[in-house]
Every structure is written in C-alpha cells, then in structure tokens.
Design a protein that fits this description.
Layout (H helix, E strand, L loop, with lengths): L1 E2 L5 E2 L11 H24 L22 H23 L46
Antiparallel strand pairs: 1-2
Length: 136
Amino acid sequence: MIKEDEHRVRLIRRAYVPRGDDDELLHIFGEDVSDLIRTIDHNLVSGPADPGLFQRTLSYNRIPASILPEWRRHSAIKSQQLLESLDHWLGPKDLDASSATPEAGDTEVRTGIGIFYFEETVPKPATQEGRHDEPE
C-alpha cells in the first residue's frame, strides 16, 4: 500500500498483510478469531427456520508431510482466487467504494469470508506391544 495523499492510498498487492506491525497484526488476528466464534455461535443457536451461516472445513488426517510445500502453494493460490472473485462481486456494493446510498431504513452490515490454513502432526497410533490400556 502506498499513501497517495492524506485521503487516498494505492494498493500494490491484492492482499493487505501488515509486516512488522505487531499491534495491527494482533488486531487483525483478533478480529478473525472473533468473526469465527460469532459464526459458530450463530450456527449453534440458530433455529430450524435459519439456514445458519456458511461454515465448512476441509481436512484429512493421513497426508504425507512431503506434499505439504505443494499443498501450501496450491491452497494459497486457490484461496486467493476465491477471495478475489468474491471481492469482485461484493466490493462494488460497499457504500465507501461506490456512489450508492442505502435505501431508507436499510441497516449497514459488516460481512465477509475468512479462509485460513492449518496443519499439525498426527501422533502415530500405539502398537500392540506398546499398548497399556489392557489389564495384564
């Protein structure tokens, strides 16, 4: 991001990820966690007439670690493409980015989609000889 003047900035990348600014990173990460918790809470308490908010996870438990570099690249590219496609649709509807005005009585809402990557090592199952849960 490059500051053009006191009222305008110009993006030099499609995504804004602050580097070296711990306060801003903590703010963004805290907002991400808060958004996910609100979505989970909404889905837990929503009634039959409410379809709930979109919440999905893709996960596998037995992926070889050797493919992780390729998977990280692939998932990052596809995730960025999805976010850009959604931004292309939603961005022009943002009241700050358009000349549109809300209809009388319409409420302004903060909305979005969050995507995050995760990985963790899966513990190896205990072998028959190493099991300690059976009586001797």
